[in-house]
Amino acid sequence: MAGKRDKKGSGSGIVIRREEIVEGGHHGGAWKVAYADFVTAMMAFFLLMWLLNATTEEQRRGLADYFSPANLMSHASSGTGEPFGGHTPFDKGEMVSDRGAVQVVQGAQPVVERTKDGNDRVITDYHPSYTGDGVGQKPAAEDLAAEDLAAEDGAARMAGSAAQRQAADQPASPAGQPDGAADRRYQTPAEQEAERERLEKAAFEQAAQQIRDAVRSDPALAVLAKQLAIDMTPEGLRIQIMDEVKLPMFPTGSSAPNERARLLLQKIVPVLLKLSQPISIAGHTDAAPFPGPDRTNWELSAERANATRRLLVDDGLPESRIRSVTGLADREPLLPNDPLAAANRRIAILVLRQMPQAAAPEAPAATAGTQPAGP
Prior knowledge:
Blueprint: H1 2-9, H2 30-54, H3 57-67, E1 112-114, E2 121-123, H4 141-169, H5 189-217, E3 228-232, E4 236-242, H6 259-273, E5 279-284, H7 297-314, E6 322-327, E7 346-352
Parallel strand pairs: 5-6
Antiparallel strand pairs: 1-2, 3-4, 4-7, 5-7
């Protein structure tokens, strides 16, 4: 028994070593992925906010069309061509090209074939010349009409955006200028001249109507309305004050206007002050010879024209507006067929055009084109 104990006691021992591992190394990078996703989302959000602020409605519509799902059955699927329908974030709705905005057009109906049993439908590959009946045909009329409408809509949007940009770039018209005066720098010389003639004609027509209304509204001058003729000539607006047999504007052989002529000229001056064009005054007489060897109808017509000038200036017309004062005697009768008629004795006040028109051929009768102030 003792021998056995000694044998067990002398046996080799078993050593167990236990090492404690400290968790201080790498823990993984899952949080970095989440953080990167967050930063990416924030960047996309701020980019979206910037695009909403920096683009126009037209550009945003083009952006939406660009990223919309393509229609496989349409000739004009979105996502082709330039992005934003030809726009950039820095222009004001202007189209870079003239092809119109990107449009998504409803395509033609897909080709449908029936199986032999008549129940199932098979959608075959689409081809413009194939409509399902096995015979090559042109595209359907409604499809072509839809494409034409899309092209017209794109052109209209292009023209509208260009007009808006031009209107935004133009400065506001200064006070006192007619509408559209600021657009003249975008017009050609021919267009500017046509616009100037149109405005001048409108001003002359308004002045003529104001003179007629002023004479008709005055009881003391209403009877003289038929002795006032206003018409448009190639040189400008002509106002003629004529004599009548029993209602002369100047005493016979005299250059001093009577009271009726003075009142009539006083009604004309306020209207002339609204215009800025120069004025020419001409005196006319009939063909009756002037009595006496010392004076002729030349002196009489010139003196009456000059007397009219004095009255206009005394009533407030600036002297600088007077371009010329002329006596024409009986050389330009109003009634050529009746050289002794009282209407040939007259005063013609001509408001000259800034740009005279080409002279039109005169009618045989000098009265053609005149319009009395009376009814």
